Amino acid sequence: MSLSNLLVRVKSRYQRSVGDWMYRRPFALPAEQAYVSFTFDDFPVSALHTGGEILRAAGARGTYYAAFGLMDSDAPTGRIFGKSDVAPLLERGHELACHTYAHCDSWDTDATAFDASLEENQRALRAFAPGAEFASFSYPLTSPHPTVKQVAARRFRSCRGGGQTFNSGIADLALLKSFFIEKSATRPEAIKAAIDANAAARGWLIFSTHDVSGTPTPYGVTPELFRQVVEWSVASGARVLPVAEVLSALRTGSIGAAD
User: Fold this and answer.
1) Distance CA 144, CA 202 (A)
2) How far apart are CA 156 and CA 173, in angstroms?
3) pLDDT of residue 249
4) Can you tell me the mean pLDDT for 10-27?
5) Domain map of the chain by residue range?
6) How far is the first Cα of the chain from the last one, in angstroms, to the nearest whole number?
7) Which of 101, 138, 195, 259 could share a disulfide with 121, CB 3.0–4.6 Å?
């Protein structure tokens, strides 16, 4: 391993560890029922019109973390949603959630600027859906700086990161763990193992990805893999719900200020 790669790994591990332990919002999962949520960062068009249709065929719905500043652009994760995609998403019962307005780096952005981008994204949402409010958030690009985690946790019922595992026991609503499907695209057995472990623990497994396409970006997955993961999740006995709806179902399990 080169020195530069080693330094990147050390920095990433440091960021994750700091984010894990500061400004936590503890939430007790009651371990009475397993849950699975499917989430899409950036909200590429294919995530709704391909991924969303796969979910709908299974009787499920997802959470779409949108950065309105990316709207109608071509990003590394594919073509990003446009104005005409917002209403269909909401009409189909999916959750529209926040990803900052400008897709801010969660570690390197000043907390004041990050908070301003959160507010700008909320204003953009109201322009398309008057009276609507974001309940859920995911951190763009990196693990959050502690000060960024602090300002985000004040605004949302939940904030989601990564971690490649499920939530069980005492979860942190300011940094929920999720499993990025594309990171195990060549090892689907690891995805199935996570689903089975979540079912056994009666935990909450939040799947994340970006585009869903026959020719996915490095940050997305194929429809075939996504459909398989949805089928495994449903077959596991877990309730498959958007993030905000899982929290509503689990509200009585909170040991902290969940709302």
Assistant:
1) 27
2) 9
3) 94
4) 70
5) 30-253
6) 45
7) 101
Task: Decide if 177 contacts 204 (C-beta within 8 A).
Answer: no
- Round to whole Å and give the CA distance between 34 and 38: 14
151's enclosing H/E stretch is helix 146-155
Distances, alpha carbon 97 to alpha carbons 12, 137, 192, in Å: 25, 6, 26
Cα gap 22→42, rounded to integer Å? 26
Give the mean model confidence (pLDDT) for residues 200-222. Answer: 98
Task: Determine which of 20-34, 119-133, 236-250 has the lowest per-residue pLDDT on average.
Answer: 20-34
Assigned CATH for 30-253: 3.20.20.370
21 pLDDT higher than 70: no
Kindly give the interhelix angle for 223-235 and 188-201, rounded to the nearest 10 degrees. Answer: 20
Return the structure tokens found at 164.
């490649």
Contact (CB, 8 A) for 205 and 35: yes
What contacts 77, CB < 8 A, 6 or more positions away?
41, 42, 44, 210, 211, 217, 219, 220
The amino acid occupying position 178 is: S
